[in-house]
Every structure is written in C-alpha cells, then in structure tokens.
User: Which sequence fits this backbone?
C-alpha cells in the first residue's frame, strides 16, 4: 500500500524537482554544447597562408597514406603533419613554414659575381673608336621621309642625352642620306671612307612599291654587288651593324605573303649577305594605316639597345647565325635556321670555349653559380644545412649534382642547356624560336593561350628518379632516389634561369624572320614551364621558387613524374599541375619509365590520389606520352582506370618525340615506336568512348596536330554553354593568388580559396578545336624539307 502510494506520488515529486532545479540544469546543458562545438571548431580549424587562403576541397576528405620512407631524406616537410592527415590543406600547412621561411634549412648566400661584359665580337675597340650612325631612306610620297626625320631626331637627342660613360665609345650625331641622291658605290659596295677610328652603323628606312620605282634599282644594286665575283662575299663586313625598317600598307597588302613590306624584307636579306650577317636588330615593319608609330618606337628602342651594346664593347651579342659571324653567310635564302641550328652553333662556341669555361659562365651576367671546383671564385651557393642521413663515413659531404668539370655538364650544354648553379637548367625550345618568327606556338597556346615566345622552360633539378626510355637526355641525366646534393637557393636559381633565358632570346635577334614586336615582348617572361628535364619537385625549395615566380607574375606549369608523393602533397598551388602517366599498369610502367624506386607503383598510385584531392584547388592534368610497342596496345581500359582514380581536369595525349640518340636505340626505341597522328587520334577516340561508358564526362576538346597532341577535358568543368573553355585567364589567376578578388571555394559557408573554375579564360578558339588542326591561322606555317601537309599530318611529333 505504501509503495503504491509512493509510486502514485512519483510524477508529482519529479515535476517538483524539475521546477526547483530547471534553470541551472538548462544552463549547464547549453554551456556543455557550446564547449563541445567550440572544441570541435578549434580542432578543425586550419592555418591560412599569408598571401591568400589555402584552397581546399569542399567535398572530399580523402586520406592518402604517405609512408615514412617516401619522405625525402633532406625534407622540409614535417612527417607528423603529413601523416596525420594527408588532405592537401594539412600538407599545405607544412608548406606555409617554408613560404614564410620560418622553418627549414639555413641559407648561406654567396656573393653574386660582378657583371663582366661579354667580349666584343669584332675588332672594334670601344675604348678608342667612335660609332657613326648613318640613316638611309627612300620615299616617293613623303611618308617614309617624314618618319625618317622623326627617327633621326629621336636618336639624335637620345645620343646627346647620353652622359659619356668612362668606358663607352662615343656615338656620333647620326647623318641622314636619301638613297636616291647618294653615290651608291660610296656606301653599298664597300663601307664608306672616314676618319680613322670611326666605324659605321647603318639604319635603312624604306617603303614598298609593287611597281617599278627607284627602290627596284636600289634592290637590284644590292643584289648585283652580292653576285659580283670581283667583290668580296661580304664587302660591308666592316660595318658595326645594320637594321632595316619597312613602311607598308596593310589595307592593300594585309599580310607578308601578300606583299606587306616585301621590299624592306628584301633589303634586309641582301644587307645580311653583304655585311656577313650583321643584323643588329630584327627587321621592323609598320603599317602606315595602323600601327606604324608603335612599331617604329619599338624599333628605335631596339636600335638604342644595340648601339649601347656596341659602345660598351659587347658587339652584336654572342654571334648566332644572323647576328654577326661572316662565316655563316651565304644561305640566308634557306634562311632558315633549322630549329636545332642555334643549339649547334652554341655547341661549337662552347667547344671552342671549353678551356675558358669560367668566362662563359660569367658572360651569363654574373648570376650563375660557379662550381666549387673553380678556385678563387666566390661561391654563390646555398649551403643548405639539412640533416644528412647517419652514415658510416661522416666525412662524406654533399656534392654538386652537375659539376662544371663533369661529362654530364658537357653533354647537357652541348644539347643547348644552360646549367644554373649545379643542379638547375634552362633551354630555349623550338616553339619559342618559331613564335618569335611568327611561325606558330606550341600546343599550349592552342589549348591554354600560352604564347611560346613569352614562355621559359626550366627545371630546378636536372636529376630524376626514372630513366624513361624516351628521355631526351639519354646517358646524360643524373639520377638518384634522394636529394643528396649541394643545394642552390631559389633566388639564385630564379635570377640565373631568367638571365640565361633572356640572353638566349637576345642571341636570336639577328635570326632572319624574327618579328620585332614579338622580340620586344619576349623580353618579359610571362610563363614558366617547370618541366624541361629531371624532376622539379625533387628540389627541396620548390615551393619558394614557385612563390618567387608568382611574385613576378610568371604563371607556372609543373610536370612531375609521380614518384614523389610526399613532395607532391606539400606542393603549393601552381597554375596547372601535371603528372606524367607513361603507362597504365605496373609492368608497363616498369618497362617504360625504368624507375629507380622499388615501390614505384605504390608511389605512382599515391600521387594519383593526391591529384584527385587537389583538383579542386588547381587545374590538374594527366600527360600521356604514347610510345608504340610500349604503352599503347590494349592499355585503353587501364588508362581509363587511372583517370577514374584521379579525375584530372585535363588529359593531354601526345605521341612520343624521337630523340634520335644512340642511347635511345640501345633501349630498343626507334622511329617505329613513334605513332602516326592518325594512331594517336584513334587511341584518343577509344579512350573517350571508354570514359563515357563509365559515365565520366570527358570529351575531346582540342588538338595540335603539328605536335601530335590531343586534349581531353572534363566537360562538366571546362565547357561553358556547350562550348569548350580550356584557356586560362592568367590575370584572374594572379588576382586570386594575391587576394585581390575572392575565390569561390567554400567550406562551412566560408570562402577558403579559389577553384580552377575561377580562372577559366576565353573559349577555345575554333581553329584549335578537335578536327581543325590547332594551328593559329594568323601564323605562317612553314614545312620542313621533305614534309608537306600530308606527311606532316601523319608524322609530325
Ligand atoms: C602604287 C603603290 C604600290 C604599293 N605597293 C605596296 C606593297 O606592295 N606592299 C606594301 O606593303 N605597301 C605598298 N604600298 C604602300 C606604300 O608602301 C605606303 O603607302 C608607304 O607609306 C609609301 O611610302 P612613301 O610615301 O614614303 O614613299 C604601295 C603604295 C602604292 C601607291
Ligand atoms: S610551353 Fe613548352 S613547348 Fe611551349 S614554348 Fe613553352 S617550353 Fe616550349
């Protein structure tokens, strides 16, 4: 009965207790929830990089297992930070310290070498001689005459404004001559007689008329002088240099093929022969109905630069064909400097100068590191003091990767590379030369809008952990699985590669056909392809180097070989991130890449997983290099598996380029392994079919048949209103990078960075779309000997 009574009272009792204590209970519960939420927030919060918020995935938190043995020996990465959670944000937080340089190796920077001037290329003595500029013109209706007198005025007042530098030759007031009134023999059969110690520099400004005029007579005279067997081959070789500017009319003669400035081009050609190729500045051409003032201004600026070079004893530069070596004359017609000719010429110079290699390096403008093997020279390297692996032999110090005295150095420089410090390299690619001459850019222009003459190709690590069968550097490449070399600092590398690149561009100024406006543009690098040879992310300070490039508004494409997952995870965002996919399965990858790492396949797969996660913060690309007989047959499904795993924004499929060395032969690679373009196209079609059958929305976006390259892209990301938009808005990339505009990458309702979609540029141009070939119609297509449209379509690599 008692218990029945108690049970009956219980609800009322509980209610009473609740009423008495409800306020403190509710308050405690609310506080507890707040504390838990706050703790979760603190735990989940991630560091932001100083420049702009670190981009991160809005949807995926994939964990990529990074094994401790994958961490580089001399790492700047914090293994705990990476292994705790290899999501890119975590990995990037390990980078932050390197960007801010709070952590990481101590750098001891050596002194830069003094800027020693290149040697003069003629007998002109800049300490005792004088320069006399002579300006020649012809004009029928007065336009050329008017611009000539403006030019003379501009150059004249520039000369009088020059404060004589102690060491420079004086430049005299220019003299102007109308070609119609001079004694032709006085100036164009031999160099004019003058006071001793005075040498001449010719400027020729002429219009073009497609009818018979005095201009025709001038041209005929130049030609006859050249062909006269009684006269020296190069009777005007005495001149210090020359340059021509043409006036034409694009309304009547819109392109060079249709005769725009054709007579100026002729004069330029004959003068090259008569002077033994002393073209001091590229032929300038101005449209009198349009851009003439701008083009003439650029040309005058170039002339001033050339005059200063001569006055200070540097002559016309390093003397590639067309800029100063009479021995090279005679084939101006063929012109045409095969793409490797400049390299060949450089090679000859390098051979001749091997004994004076130190001077060579100094010629680069004082910015290049000198090997420790060179005595009495300040060593501008960074003695990076990372922790070396415990070794039984404690006296073993890090060595130079490519010492200046090594056969590797010799071999690489012969191939046209300039070695910066002891482990970085830079080279001008054939497309840069081609673009300078208006003959087309590489596929990166068709696909992404990168003009080749604004692009520098470089690497901070010539060493690599693979020995790919198609590598351009067979027998010359340093290899290794760990970074064990003396390390140059990123600022020294940046200064070195840019100075060497500019020097190489300058060497092209006298090459026939170089367009003055493109030459001027090329003196401001806008893009860096970190891909040349070797493995760029092998370099321990790669993040700092990228940061420096970006701070100069140089966008970055970085290609890695999928063998260094720890470094890849820690990489700061680049403009476009590539992974080379040289095979679709383990056996094939072993055969083609010949990797040094035993766990190469695990490393490869980890890199794909990292790429998958990072696809939200930067444009990611698979680069497939197809080698017939190695990685094409029956591999379509395998490649589709890899694409499905990493979901890159783009897939570039390219036929291998045959490097033609004996080393390539020794690994069984011949021309038979180079696929025809039609075979590459078939492969691409099959790959897309396979991807679509798996509901992966990839399509064929663009092609560059000229280099046997096809682009697939993710339709959901890089198609706008049914039209491909594969190009990059570089300006917007830097705005995002510098935090001047907000990206659209959200997390927890907060903007955390940008997405690749935030810097998508213009639509892919029609001519670049699949089926249209990919060659910009504004450029001039030049077929190599023995090739024609048909062969080229099939075979061009
Ligand atoms: C009859 C005639 C033919 C011409 N032929 C060409 C030509 O073949 N290519 C070209 O670029 N401009 C051509 N032009 C345009 C002239 O080169 C241009 O007007 C130039 O400025 C004339 O210079 P001048 O008046 O100083 O002599 C031609 C002009 C005329 C009147
Ligand atoms: S993108 Fe590559 S191929 Fe094109 S110009 Fe630059 S380095 Fe050369």
Assistant:
């Amino acid at each position: 009965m008692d218990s029945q009574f108690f049970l009956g009272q219980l609800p009322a009792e509980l209610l009473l207790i609740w009423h008495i204590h409800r306020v403190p209970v509710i308050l405690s519960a609310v506080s507890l929830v707040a504390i838990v939420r706050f703790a979760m927030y603190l735990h989940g919060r991630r560091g932001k990089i100083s420049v702009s918020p670190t981009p991160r995935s809005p949807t995926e938190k994939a964990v990529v297992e990074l094994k401790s043995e994958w961490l580089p020996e001399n790492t700047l990465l914090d293994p705990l930070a990476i292994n705790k959670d290899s999501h890119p944000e975590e990995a990037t937080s390990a980078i932050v310290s390197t960007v801010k340089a709070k952590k990481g190796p101590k750098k001891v920077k050596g002194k830069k070498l003094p800027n020693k001037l290149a040697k003069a290329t003629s007998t002109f003595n800049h300490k005792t001689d004088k320069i006399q500029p002579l300006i020649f013109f012809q004009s029928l209706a007065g336009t050329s005459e008017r611009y000539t007198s403006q030019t003379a005025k501009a150059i004249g007042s520039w000369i009088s404004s020059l404060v004589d530098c102690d060491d420079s030759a004086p430049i005299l007031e220019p003299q102007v001559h109308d070609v119609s009134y001079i004694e032709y023999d006085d100036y164009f059969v031999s160099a004019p007689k003058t006071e001793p110690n005075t040498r001449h520099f010719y400027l020729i400004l002429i219009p073009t008329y497609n009818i018979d005029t005095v201009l025709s007579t001038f041209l005929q005279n130049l030609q006859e002088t050249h062909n006269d067997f009684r006269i020296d081959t190069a009777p005007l070789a005495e001149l210090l240099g020359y340059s021509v500017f043409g006036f034409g009319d694009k309304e009547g003669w819109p392109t060079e093929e249709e005769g725009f400035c054709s007579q100026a081009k002729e004069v330029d050609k004959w003068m090259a022969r008569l002077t033994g190729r002393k073209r001091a500045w590229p032929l300038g051409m101005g449209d009198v109905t349009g851009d003439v003032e701008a083009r003439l201004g650029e040309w005058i600026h170039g002339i001033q630069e050339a005059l200063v070079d001569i006055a200070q004893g540097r002559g016309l530069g390093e003397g590639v064909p067309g800029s100063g070596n009479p021995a090279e004359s005679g084939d101006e017609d063929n012109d045409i400097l095969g793409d490797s000719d400049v390299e060949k010429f450089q090679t000859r110079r390098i051979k001749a100068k091997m004994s004076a290699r130190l001077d060579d390096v100094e010629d680069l403008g004082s910015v290049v590191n000198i090997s420790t093997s060179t005595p009495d020279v300040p060593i501008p390297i960074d003695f990076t003091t990372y922790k070396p692996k415990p070794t039984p032999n404690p006296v073993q110090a890090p060595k130079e990767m490519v010492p200046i005295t090594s056969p590797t150095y010799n071999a690489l420089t012969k191939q046209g590379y300039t070695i910066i410090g002891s482990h970085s390299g830079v080279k001008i690619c054939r497309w840069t030369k081609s673009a300078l001459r208006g003959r087309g850019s590489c596929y990166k222009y068709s696909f992404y809008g990168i003009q080749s003459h604004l692009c520098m190709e470089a690497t901070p690590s010539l060493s690599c952990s693979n020995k790919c069968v198609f590598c351009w550097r067979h027998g010359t490449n340093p290899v290794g699985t760990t970074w064990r070399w003396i390390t140059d600092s990123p600022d020294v590398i940046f200064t070195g590669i840019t100075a060497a690149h500019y020097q190489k561009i300058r060497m092209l100024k006298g090459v026939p056909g170089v367009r003055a406006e493109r030459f001027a543009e090329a003196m401001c690098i806008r893009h860096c392809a970190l891909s040349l040879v070797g493995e760029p992310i092998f370099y321990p300070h790669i993040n700092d180097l990228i940061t420096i490039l970006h701070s100069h508004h140089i966008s970055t494409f970085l290609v890695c070989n999928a063998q260094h997952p720890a470094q890849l995870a820690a990489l700061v965002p680049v403009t476009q991130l590539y992974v080379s996919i040289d095979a679709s399965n383990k056996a094939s990858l072993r055969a083609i890449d010949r990797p040094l790492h035993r766990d190469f396949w695990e490393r490869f797969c980890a890199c794909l997983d990292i790429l998958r996660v990072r696809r939200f913060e930067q444009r990611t690309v698979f680069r497939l290099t197809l080698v017939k007989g190695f990685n094409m047959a029956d591999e379509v499904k395998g490649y589709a598996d890899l694409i499905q795993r990493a979901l890159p924004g783009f897939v570039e499929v390219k036929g291998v380029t045959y490097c033609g060395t004996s080393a390539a032969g020794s690994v069984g690679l011949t021309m038979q392994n180079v696929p025809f373009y039609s075979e590459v196209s078939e492969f691409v079609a099959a790959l897309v079919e396979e991807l679509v059958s798996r509901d992966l929305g990839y399509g064929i976006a663009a092609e560059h048949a000229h280099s046997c390259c096809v682009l697939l892209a993710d339709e959901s990301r890089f198609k706008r209103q049914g039209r491909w938009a594969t190009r990059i808005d570089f300006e917007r990339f830097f705005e995002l990078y510098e935090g001047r505009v907000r990206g659209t990458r959200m997390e927890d309702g907060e903007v955390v960075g940008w997405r690749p979609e935030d810097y998508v540029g213009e639509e892919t141009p029609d001519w670049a779309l699949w089926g249209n070939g990919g060659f910009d119609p504004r450029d001039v297509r030049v077929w190599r000997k023995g090739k024609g449209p048909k062969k080229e379509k099939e075979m061009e690599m």
Notes: The CA atoms of residues 74 and 311 lie 49 Å apart. The chain has a mean pLDDT of 77.
